[in-house]
User: Fold Translocation and assembly module subunit TamA from Shewanella eurypsychrophilus.
Amino acid sequence: MLCNVLCTTSVMASELLTLKITGVSGSLTRNIEAHLGTLPTSKVQRRAFVFNAEDNVNAALNSLGYYHAKIHQEVNNNQDAPWLLSLTITPGKPTLIEWVDLHFDGEILDDSFILQWLDNLNIKPGDKLNHGVYEQVKSQLITLAVARGYFDGKYIKSSIEVNRDMNTAKITLHYDSGLRYHMGAVSFDGHTLQDGFLDELIPFEDNSPYSTGSLSRLNRELLDTSYFSNIKVLPQIDKAVGLDVPIKVELSPKPSHSIELGLGVDIGNTTDNTLEPRVSINWRTPQINNYGHSQETSLEWSPDRPKYLTTYTIPLTHPLDDQLKFRFGMLRDKYGVTQVYDADENKYSNTGELEGSKGLLAVIRQQRLGNNWLLSYSVEGMKEYYTQSDIDYSPEFLLFGASISKTSRGDNTLDPKSGFFQHYSIEYANPNLGSAIQLTRLQTKYKWIETFFDKHRIVSRLDLGVNLADEADLALIPPSLRYFAGGDQSIRGYSYQELGPYIEYENSEGNKAREVVGGRYLMVGSVEYQYYVTPTWRVGTFIDAGNAFDVNQIEPIVSVGGGLHWISPIGPIKLDLGVGLKETETVDRSWRIHLTMGAEL
Assistant:
């Protein structure tokens, strides 16, 4: 009975042999099984397995610091049944590490990265001796040294001295790194860009200390240009000149054109439909000429919201960090709801939505600053046509804008475990500068992601906005510049842009009517909890709250819901159901199904 409590028994069986191990558990059992190997598949292998079993068990125990084990081996060689090999093991006392003598020579003594590795070393006096951990430490140091450019490094001495009588061990590791090599000249092969164009992407100075991390950053910069389908960054250590290692970069350009297709759909009860499909086509030309110009054209179609947008990009002082963009687009969008009062039914009935059609032409300069802040400033000309309260409008605007944003990610995957996004923008229009009215738009956006205990993930966001304009000019602010709420990136229990302040008026037929026209202010927040059922599947539940507001109409809206998310190789695909908890004056209590795809940062 006592043995059953203190000991565990491992049993493995095949057609020829049943193996029973008693007296050890955990890592000892696993290591013994690994040293014994797979069970025999022939009678000759069976005899060899039994004959070598005790030696293999001793080797397994010795590698984990047990040198005084007692092994009792018993074989029941049945003629008509598999043999039974029973191993009863008393491991004895483990060998403990008495001291660890680590000694370094060479330039590695001044390398803070190696010193940090030493601080986290998982081998110290008092630990049980484990030959596997010892070999792992030796291998780690060699790997790190090579990655840091100590190509002439070698062990002067590496040994384990075991005192079996005292059950103690002394570990000695003496390593001489020699001199650290440096980054040499970088050459680029296989591209058609101007000479020197790619030199701006090199993230290290000439003759800087060698590091594979620096080479990885160079690879990432080249990848971010979107010019190349294949990138190989090759340090030519065998061609080093003195301590300088030449770096050869082999490049394969992307195809001249690429086309991507996107699909999406919103399902649920909304103002006038129950199914809203979305189709998008993106056409990219990654490299138009040897100056690195590129273009991207997107076409999006949905029954009420077609969109065309072309962006032409010209690199300026840096291929990635300084770009000039010319943007041209035409789009139509719908907002809120228009309703007419039915006196016979004593209620308002939906008759449509506020529709805006606009054309735009913009010039944008985008720069990446220190600490990955992204700064852009722009001039955008636009003209928008819309009918509000049965009055036609077509104001023209020349908007001067600036924005700054930063995205911090805990990892570079399509489904980051942590991260923080922040965005701040301002736009200004003035009649003296070609606009219909004076307008100042301020916006800020935040998104925060954090994962706890591997499987528990929190995603939260906050969107704020304000339009500063004269009260008499509000109708001349185009719908695309006002604030609305609702949709898969806002309050998910309601349709896209259907929430916001409304106005009451008498329509052209003399009937009472009202129309959601958007607000001067926006405040929308969300908190979502996600749980990973498997590494590629998760479930989520969320609460969204807020609205678009005006001075005389402040009506907070809340929706709740949940969904199923698949972390696909091309990014998360999310199927979410949102349920609105409140009826407004213009919108009944609503529910929506959202199918979306794409990273959250």
About this structure: The helical segments are 2-6, 26-36, 43-63, 112-119, 131-147, 212-224.
